[in-house]
Design brief:
alpha+beta, three-stranded antiparallel β-sheet
Length: 476
């Protein structure tokens, strides 16, 4: 049983790891696949439906056999004809074979329901909701109260081994019981028997049923723990694989803006150019050393909203994204983005324990001293984060403009954190039919930059005072 669970989860993990979404603190890139050709597309609902159909079919067969068995017992109670005993044992054996299959399917059902509970289907495959799984310490405490082990240094693996051993020992007892039953049947069938032999046969039949019920109980507990353990291992590996190859766990893209189309990088180099990045710092904490950069003009393009299953945005808990052209009307008008995220997320606890990150993308032109002070197309980005309490800017990030959705801004100077060489080569979306280095969040193509970079506005408290983070933008 453990094998099929592991294979399913490994399929989910490894075959879907190549269809993931970049979701780091400064970027989320995502393309919806047109086809699905791997275990990442396993339909858990379809699996569950099939198991339920098989359970129903077997249950009907068992009911028919049990009806036949009841008639035999009624015949025995009426006639006490010992020839009926052999027939009772034969039908009991047939019922047992069918019941074993039924219990196996019921354990599969239990595993699939757990997988369904702790995973979410996305356009890219199945994501394991690692953070929602019960902690090992809580499980150990729960099963210590059930089992009362003589030792206290136990873990999940120990309890799995305990239930496996308990089932094996009980099965050994069943085998011994069954062997004794067969011996007695031979005595009865030979005609050389006593009523004590008959009573013992009936007692052994009942004992066999009780032993199998114990085995089923142990097997179910083992199955539950093995499934949770497999989910925890696969979920953890999903996170490790994501970290190792620079991508994050599967996320849901809700779109919201015009779709772009990928271009080969060579077309961006030929037709759009590849300029040096604007002067800035490579970490916001060094904002005090960032020079002021002169933007001749810029205008609003799109808003990206990342949704996180953590109280503050954490890339390890990135869940999904959506984009919109609806900019905030004022520098505090951010509640609408939070409300939309709450509507999109299916979890009942997201409103209390989730968060969002908002990036306001502008397209513009800036003078670049690294290119002889020539103008080059350059984006500029403001970032805000929110949860159930309100919205804020993190340390060294500048608060949004007083009028974020103004049609046009001119002659502005800002310090920049430059996320270099991050953009993709794309066309259409919001950049037209020519290939440009641009942001591709939500499957779009917007806020281009000739240096293939993202330019975030940063600041220091010494210069900007309360306009500089960490500070609340709005509380609700």
């Amino acid at each position: 049983m453990r094998k099929w669970i592991t294979m399913l989860l490994l399929g989910i993990l490894f075959l879907s790891s190549f269809q993931t979404v970049k979701a780091e603190a400064t970027q989320t890139t995502n393309q919806v696949p047109t086809t699905c050709q791997s275990c990442s597309c396993v339909d858990v609902e379809a699996l569950l439906s099939q198991v339920l159909v098989n359970i129903s079919t077997l249950s009907f067969e068992i009911e028919q056999k049990n009806a036949e068995l009841q008639k035999l017992y009624m015949g025995w109670n009426t006639t006490k004809n010992v020839s009926i005993l052999s027939e009772i044992v034969r039908i009991e054996d047939e019922v047992r074979v069918l019941t074993n299959k039924l219990k196996f399917l019921e354990r599969q059902k239990l595993s699939i329901e757990l997988i369904k509970k702790y995973t979410i289907k996305t356009p890219y495959g199945i994501k394991i909701l690692y953070y929602k799984l019960p902690s090992e310490s809580a499980l150990v405490q729960e099963y210590m109260e059930k089992v009362h082990p003589v030792r206290t240094d136990v873990d999940l693996t120990w309890f799995i081994a305990y239930y496996r051993q308990a089932a094996e020992l009980t099965f050994t007892e069943y085998v011994q019981t069954d062997m004794r039953l067969r011996e007695l049947l031979k005595i009865v069938n030979s005609g050389n028997y006593t009523q004590e032999h008959v009573r013992e046969i009936l007692d052994l039949l009942e004992q066999r049923r009780m032993l199998w019920n114990e085995i089923y109980s142990y097997a179910e507990e083992k199955e539950k723990l093995e499934t949770i353990q497999a989910l925890k291992e696969a979920g953890w590996k999903q996170t490790l694989v994501a970290s190792a190859i620079g991508i994050e766990p599967l996320a849901i893209n809700f779109g919201g803006i015009a779709e772009g189309e990928s271009c080969f990088s060579i077309f961006c180099n030929w037709n759009y150019g590849y300029k040096d990045p604007l002067p800035g710092v490579d970490d916001p904490k060094y904002a005090d050393s960032a020079p002021l950069v002169h933007y001749s003009s810029f205008y609003p393009v799109a808003v990206w909203v990342g949704i996180y299953e953590s109280t503050t945005p954490n890339k390890d808990y990135f869940w999904g994204q959506y984009c919109t052209y609806d900019f905030p009307q004022t520098n505090t008008d951010f509640r609408k983005y939070w409300d939309r995220a709450v509507d999109l997320h299916p979890g009942t606890q997201f409103q209390d324990f989730g968060s969002i990150q908002i990036k306001l993308f502008y397209d513009g032109w800036a003078y670049n001293p690294n290119e002889g002070n020539q103008l080059q197309e350059s984006n500029i980005i403001w970032q805000v984060e929110c949860n159930k309490s309100g919205c804020w800017v993190v340390t060294n990030y500048l608060k949004p403009l007083p009028d974020p959705d103004a049609a046009y801004y001119a002659d502005k100077y800002y310090k920049l954190y430059v996320n270099k060489y991050w953009l993709e080569c794309c066309k259409y979306g919001d950049v037209g039919s020519s290939c440009k280095w641009a942001n591709t969040h939500c499957g779009g193509c917007f806020a281009p930059d000739q240096a293939r970079s993202q330019n975030f506005v940063v600041c220091t408290r010494d210069t900007y005072g309360s306009l500089c983070g960490w500070d609340w933008v709005v509380k609700w």
